[in-house]
């Protein structure tokens, strides 16, 4: 049911930060770095990859499918519903139809978006005017690529995109991966 997102089938950089201690929980949440999406989201990601390539950029993915078990771990580390979906309600990531990502230049360096991924502050919100012109332009480029590929954005996180009808997809546990993602 889930599609593996990895080169060479998908020309993206994968840096799943929840498979490392370098995330808001401070410990690895995933046992392995495996990037997965629902086939509908994978198709739209493929479109976004082509659009990013057209402006001389690449996509770098920080997170994609997040099992319900992982959502609970994030919620326990940072229980703020503005930034981490309450697992009782369900995350779009746990449906396999959301992706956290950025743009990187041709050399693979992430563009400056004004904050790091998972900076859970108002500075991460879309349409900030207190960023440099370059940072605002970079966020607008990412938004343009993703919107043109059929994704919706989340206003509080410049990195988060989901399918417009994301709530119509079922929540999935690690069983959907054969139990290989969670530690």
TrEMBL record:
GO terms for molecular function: D-Ala-D-Ala dipeptidase activity. This is D-alanyl-D-alanine dipeptidase. Its EC number is 3.4.13.22. Binds 1 zinc ion per subunit. Keywords: Cell wall biogenesis/degradation, Dipeptidase, Hydrolase, Metal-binding, Metalloprotease, Protease, Zinc. It comes from Azospirillum rugosum. Zn(2+) binds at residues 93, 100, 160. Belongs to the peptidase M15D family. Pfam families: Peptidase_M15. PANTHER family: D-ALANYL-D-ALANINE DIPEPTIDASE. It catalyses: D-alanyl-D-alanine + H2O = 2 D-alanine. Its cofactor is Zn(2+). It comes from the Bacteria. Catalyzes hydrolysis of the D-alanyl-D-alanine dipeptide. The active site is at 157 (proton donor/acceptor). The record marks 66 as: Transition state stabilizer. InterPro entries: A_A_dipeptidase, Zn_M74/Hedgehog-like.
């Amino acid at each position: 049911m889930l599609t593996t997102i990895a080169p060479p089938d998908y020309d993206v950089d994968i840096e799943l930060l929840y498979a490392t201690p370098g995330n808001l929980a401070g410990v690895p949440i995933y046992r392995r770095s495996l990037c997965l999406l629902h086939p509908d989201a994978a198709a739209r990601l493929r479109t976004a990859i082509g659009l990013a390539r057209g402006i001389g950029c690449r996509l770098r993915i920080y997170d994609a499918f997040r099992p319900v078990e992982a959502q609970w771990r994030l919620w326990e580390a940072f229980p703020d519903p503005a930034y981490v979906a309450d697992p009782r309600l369900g995350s779009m990531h746990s449906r396999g139809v959301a992706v956290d990502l950025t743009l990187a230049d041709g050399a693979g360096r992430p563009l400056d978006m004004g904050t790091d991924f998972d900076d859970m502050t108002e500075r991460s919100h879309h349409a900030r005017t207190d960023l440099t012109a370059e940072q605002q332009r970079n966020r607008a480029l990412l938004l343009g690529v993703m919107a043109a590929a059929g994704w919706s954005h989340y206003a509080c996180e410049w990195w988060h995109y989901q399918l417009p009808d994301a709530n119509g997809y079922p929540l999935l546990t690690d069983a959907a991966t054969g139990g290989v993602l969670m530690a």
